[in-house]
């Protein structure tokens, strides 16, 4: 394709993180969210910038932690659109890491790929390291043409059509990052779509997005098991309109056989019997049963009345992330790797305030993640608003106040990276209720 044929080129110069690109329209003029059809040749959603920042950081962590071996890393940005994700991997990772990466941007839209490659040619990685290749075609076919260590799927809507082949394409040890924008289905608002696609039900309460992440993980785990692989979640995030899970995938028939041990149910307003079963199954901290928790988890083997509206699942009941991976995602490190430095006579025309705004956006994308690392396996995710209503205790306590109070009792607790004020803890329910009541201001 020659320059004159590329509709809208050269478009508008834009920066995300530390990476320059050209977009067919100015993202600041249309507000957050994806472009509507006809608004520009190439899809770009500024609301996914945090998603892309975390992708850069997770890749760097996995390289440093040796999870991707010692040699070349074959990475696929499977549905690449503007190609900004793969270009950010190469440009923002330190030279030593980028030098190991052979990244492919895959899309079935030739204009998108042409656009992405032109951006790459105009703004190659600052350190000059790493390889970037375009691949035109339907991902469901092309993904199997090459083994990969890293596969990213970021589709319109559900990732399900791409899951089977993406998992099969992974090397013996690899990482899959999977976004889903069909959050109405995954969080239970579109019940029939949820049942049809994911074979699950989700109660539309405050934990619906956590349940949605777990339903997605259960689907990924079952898909991996079909291909004699097992998953280990590294990071699971709900942000505005999308859910995203990043998992380590390893070939192991033995572990694949055990997949159902990591699946189960979440029950709202559980009975004494259900909480006892959860405690016996090691899924709930031992607690006195005269005051009952808002939720508990039960194993897949527990007899469930599928018409019971309190029940969500089947879902992943294991940890939603890996402590080391999450602990690496500090705001300081995010700024060090992805934060842009002020540029004099900036070609994008950014002022010092614009640079500061982007640095704040980068920091915000990982807020609370490293703190939550130590407690990501904990059984309780508690929304403070729900807690106050459940206890009938008036105004909700602050998440950080609850965390301090629970840590003082010797439990683990941290503020959650969740779209509503919340904390995670392994404290017994009685301690949680006591701490919340103690934090009430005197009348
Ligand atoms: C949501 S956009 C991807 C956004 C991108 N990952 C980012 O971070 O900006 C989805 C892209 O998938 C492409 N696409 C849709 N179905 C596809 C398929 N079956 N195979 C390959 N590409 C496909 C579309 O052309 C579009 O560019």
Strand-helix topology:
Blueprint: E1 12-16, E2 19-23, H1 49-64, E3 73-77, H2 84-92, H3 95-98, E4 101-107, H4 110-122, E5 131-136, H5 139-142, E6 148-153, H6 160-169, E7 170-180, H7 183-186, H8 191-198, H9 208-226, E8 229-239, E9 242-251, H10 253-257, E10 263-268, H11 272-280, E11 295-299, E12 311-316, H12 323-327, H13 331-338, H14 352-364, H15 369-372, E13 380-383, H16 384-391, H17 399-408, E14 413-415, E15 422-425, H18 429-438
Parallel strand pairs: 3-4, 3-6, 4-5, 6-7
Antiparallel strand pairs: 1-2, 7-9, 8-9, 10-11, 10-12, 13-15, 14-15
Helix pairs in contact: 1-2, 1-13, 13-14
The protein binds S-adenosylmethionine.
S-adenosylmethionine (SAM) binds next to helix 2, strand 4 and helix 5.
């Amino acid at each position: 394709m020659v320059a004159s044929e590329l509709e809208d080129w050269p478009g508008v110069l834009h920066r995300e993180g530390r990476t320059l690109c050209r977009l067919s329209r100015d993202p600041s003029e249309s507000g957050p969210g994806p472009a509507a059809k006809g608004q520009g040749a190439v899809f770009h959603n500024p609301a996914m910038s945090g998603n892309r920042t975390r992708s850069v950081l997770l890749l760097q962590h996995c390289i440093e932690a040796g999870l991707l071996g010692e040699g070349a890393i074959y990475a696929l940005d499977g549905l690449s659109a503007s190609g900004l994700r793969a270009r950010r991997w190469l440009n923002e990772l330190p030279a030593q890491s980028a030098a190991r990466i052979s990244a492919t941007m895959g899309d079935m839209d030739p204009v998108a790929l042409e656009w992405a490659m032109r951006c790459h040619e105009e703004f190659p990685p600052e350190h000059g390291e790493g390889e970037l290749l375009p691949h035109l075609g339907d991902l469901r076919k092309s993904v199997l043409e090459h083994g990969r260590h890293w596969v990213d799927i970021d589709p319109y809507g559900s990732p399900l059509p791409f899951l089977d082949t993406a998992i099969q394409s992974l090397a013996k040890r690899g990482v899959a990052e999977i976004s889903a924008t069909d959050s109405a289905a995954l969080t239970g608002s579109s019940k029939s779509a949820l049942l049809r696609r994911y074979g699950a039900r989700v109660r539309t309460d405050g934990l619906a997005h956590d349940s949605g992440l777990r339903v997605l993980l259960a689907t990924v785990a079952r898909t991996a098991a079909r291909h004699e692989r097992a998953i280990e979640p590294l990071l699971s995030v709900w942000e505005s309109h999308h859910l995203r899970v990043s998992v380590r995938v390893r070939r192991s028939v033995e572990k694949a056989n055990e997949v159902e041990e990591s699946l189960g149910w979440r029950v709202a307003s559980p009975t004494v019997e259900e909480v006892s079963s959860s405690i016996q199954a090691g899924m709930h901290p031992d607690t006195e049963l005269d005051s009952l928790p808002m939720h508990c988890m039960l194993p897949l083997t527990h007899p469930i009345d599928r018409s019971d509206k309190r029940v969500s699942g089947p879902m992943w009941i294991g940890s939603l992330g890996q402590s080391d991976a999450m602990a690496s995602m500090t705001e300081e490190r995010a700024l060090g790797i992805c934060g842009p430095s002020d540029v004099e006579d900036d070609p994008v025309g950014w002022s010092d305030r614009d640079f500061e705004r982007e640095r704040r956006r980068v920091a915000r994308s990982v807020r609370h993640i490293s703190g939550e690392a130590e407690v990501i396996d904990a059984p309780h995710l508690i929304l403070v608003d729900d807690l106050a209503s459940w206890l009938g205790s008036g105004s909700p306590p602050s998440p950080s106040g609850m965390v301090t109070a629970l840590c003082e009792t010797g439990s683990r607790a941290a503020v959650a990276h969740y779209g509503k004020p919340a904390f995670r803890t392994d404290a017994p329910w009685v301690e949680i209720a006591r701490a919340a009541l103690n934090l009430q201001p005197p009348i």
